[in-house]
Design goal:
Pfam families: Flavoprotein (PF02441). This protein is of the alpha/beta class. It has 9 helices and 7 strands. The two termini are 28 Å apart.
């Protein structure tokens, strides 16, 4: 039996649209493992069509995979704290913008409110970063989060060191394993991986 059987997982998506195709199968893995997955989205997901897909198609896919209604506003996310609904909160993909806001206690999106609610209850928040400035200005914010209590990272590495030397992306296929480890109070290792060599 999976360690996630019967757990409730908040799954927040921020606007790194290029990684959605990698992320969606991992949400299904969580559901297949017996978890209830509550999808939470930023305004970018609700309003932006890109070459990677339309806003409507991604929203529809999230509902189909999880069988849940999307949380799309800060007021909808706020009760997650008092209700203690979530056993673990995932942010995947977690953009540089969301990373910087979380590291500096700025709560201006449903995803960040859900993370704040989870941390209020001393429960784990799992971050799968996808940012072009992870080794640039955002390195300081990632460092703050690495040192923070109850925050765990999906293993990550440089995805294109020659073309984008500051870019960092998590291995989305390790989200489930990172959640299992986080619920035991440990960081999945190794944390730093050669993602660009991974296929």
């Amino acid at each position: 039996m999976s360690k996630l059987q019967g757990k409730t997982i908040g799954f927040g998506l921020s606007g790194s649209h290029c990684t959605f195709d990698e992320t969606m199968p991992q949400i299904k893995r969580l559901v297949d493992a017996g978890a209830r997955v509550v999808p939470i989205v930023t305004q970018t997901i609700l309003t932006t069509d890109t070459r990677f897909g339309t806003s409507e198609s991604w929203q529809r896919k999230l509902v189909e995979i999880t069988g849940e209604t999307l949380i799309t506003s800060i007021p909808e996310a706020e009760p997650l704290g008092p209700s203690k609904l979530l056993d673990v909160m995932v942010i995947a993909p977690c953009t540089g913008s969301t990373t910087s806001r979380l590291a500096n206690a700025i709560t201006d999106s449903p995803v960040l409110m859900a993370a704040k609610a989870t941390m209020r209850n001393l429960r784990p928040v799992v971050i799968a970063i996808s940012t072009n400035d992870g080794l640039g200005l955002n390195a300081a914010n990632i460092a703050k989060l690495l040192a923070a209590k109850n925050i765990y990272f999906v293993p990550f590495g440089q995805d294109a060191p020659e073309k984008k030397p500051n870019s960092l992306v998590a291995r989305m296929d390790l989200i489930l394993e990172t959640c299992e480890a986080a619920l035991e109070g440990r960081q999945l290792q190794p944390l730093l991986i050669e993602r660009y060599n991974y296929s």
